[in-house]
Amino acid sequence: MTLYFASVLPGLEYVLSNEIRHKMCDAEITQIKRGKVFFTTSKSFACLSSLRSADNLFRFIDQFQIGPHKQHLSQLRERMSQLDLYFLDKKKSFRVNASRKGKQTYSRFEAAEVAMEGIQKRYPSWRVGTAKNHQIELRLDIEHNEVTFSLRLTDAAFRYRKKKREFSHHCYLL
């Protein structure tokens, strides 16, 4: 079974966890955090993408601790250089997108750059893409001193579930 997490609007985590249990009989909810539901399943991506209340889907890769200062970014680089990313297509370009919560002396952009350096240390033939031009997006979420690293499975249009995947007409009223 593979560990995934789905992002959801904060406050709807239990709605999503109930949907996961209902649609994936083998799913086990492992953790619920604000705006995220972590779960294991052996179901296909088609089944995962049928989750209507999920905003985005991610394949969990690693979780570890990091300090709040710029000097701790070397730990991040080293950890990234040790990851076994065997399941990724090495012929495609990749990008790390980062978010952070808490009091750190480094920016999310600095953390993402260091993570990409660590990955390239281990896989020197991999190409780093640009923010708009990449095929593989890796996600680095830093919450205080806890880091979650994952592979984004869905694109930005996933949250819009119509056939054309566009904003509903109600959004234009805001």
From TrEMBL:
Gene3D superfamilies: 3.30.2130.30. GO terms for biological process: tRNA methylation. One of its GO terms (molecular function) is tRNA (guanine) methyltransferase activity. It comes from the Bacteria. This is THUMP domain-containing protein.
